[in-house]
Amino acid sequence: MSYSVKKAVFPVAGLGTRFLPATKSVPKELLPVIDKPLLQYAIEEACAAGIEEFIFVTGPGKSSIEEYLGASPELLSALRNGGKNDVARRLENALLPEDKVFFAFQEHPLGLGHAILCARELVGNEPFAVLLVDDFIHSEVPCLGQLVEVFSKTGGNVLAIEEVPVSEVYRYGVLDPGARNDNLVKINGLVEKPNPEDAPSNLTVVGRYILTPDVFAYLADQREGAGGEIQLTDALARMIGSYPFHGLLFEGERFDCGNKFGLLEATISTALGDPDLRDWLTNRFRDL
Ligand code: UTP
């Protein structure tokens, strides 16, 4: 049997406190790497992975995300009238079809698990992807596409994972790994933000998931966990043993754009990969 994934959930209702004061008026998810918002990179990754329906979980103060995803006829005609047809075309190409975009609302930022639960009605009873847009990933094959490929064979839950220094595990969901087959690791346990001395490994969950819709039933009665939030990791941990459950050590490099170091690193790395910016940037660094 072969499994496929057509819907993706983008939880974008968090407060982005680590980027205050910028995030007072600009959601973290719209902060740019060079000239594209983090959200746009994740949307393009989802499109490349064959996603057809896009569900955004927004919250209070996040209306600019809806504006960003909507058509902008005045802007397009101003660009065209000014002879900037190429820019207009770029904007149009980036726009998702209106009937493929859906919004759920998370009244209060009670945690990632709760944000995903808010998308329950829109997802319905089919497997779906989750993308945390502040995990910015450079890879040859888009990370979500790598997960979809694995999922087509395994079904169940498939999570992107990576190795981090042991001293860093307290920031992540951490795996208790089982049998490993090349880059695919069976997951025997999951724990959110453990102390390094209690962590079952240094393999951590990255913000790309493919989940069975059964996760909603677990999220619905999930109690608060680390940080007083309803954690996705805790609900997933309760599913282990009842569903196929794998982590993929994906090919690529992740930048944690939820903090300023990661966003800066992602920006520099992206600029170094751009022929128009690379020489300029290296020369400027030399001068500085
Ligand atoms: P983060 O924990 O990185 O985002 O959640 P945050 O809470 O906004 O950031 P800080 O810690 O205050 O700086 C990862 C993703 O999950 C979303 C966030 O918007 C982010 O894109 N999220 C988080 C929600 O949608 N709802 C929540 O309750 C929590």
Question: What does this protein structure show overall?
Answer:
This protein is of the alpha/beta class. It has a single domain, classed as Spore Coat Polysaccharide Biosynthesis Protein SpsA, Chain A. The protein is built from eleven helices and 13 strands. It has helices at 38-48, 63-69, 73-81, 85-94, 112-117, 120-123, 143-154, 215-220, 232-239, 260-272, 275-287, and strands at 7-11, 32-33, 36-37, 53-58, 101-105, 128-131, 135-138, 157-163, 173-181, 184-192, 203-211, 245-249, 253-256. The strands form three sheets. The chain has a nine-stranded mixed sheet. A two-stranded antiparallel ribbon has the order 2-3. Strand 2 and strand 3 (36-37) form a beta hairpin. The longest helix is centred in the last third of the chain and has 13 residues, at 260-272. The radius of gyration is 19 Å and the shape is globular. The model has no long low-confidence stretch (mean pLDDT 95). Uridine 5'-triphosphate binds next to helix 5.
Q: What is the strand arrangement across the widest sheet?
A: 5-4-1-6-11-8-12-10-9
The chain-level structural class is: alpha/beta
Mean pLDDT: 95
User: How many E-type strands?
Assistant: 13
What would CATH call the class? Alpha Beta
Distance between the termini: 57 Å
Helical content, roughly?
A: 25-40%
Ligands (ions, cofactors included): uridine 5'-triphosphate
Domains (count): 1
Approximate strand percentage: 15-25%
Shape: globular
- Total helices: the number is 11
- The low-confidence runs, each spanning 5 or more residues with pLDDT under 50, are none
CATH architecture: Alpha-Beta Complex
CATH superfamily: Spore Coat Polysaccharide Biosynthesis Protein SpsA, Chain A
N-to-C SSE string, H for helix and E for strand: EEEHEHHHEHHEEHEEEEHHEEHH
By CATH, the topology is Spore Coat Polysaccharide Biosynthesis Protein SpsA, Chain A
Estimated radius of gyration? 19 Å
Largest sheet: 9 strands, mixed
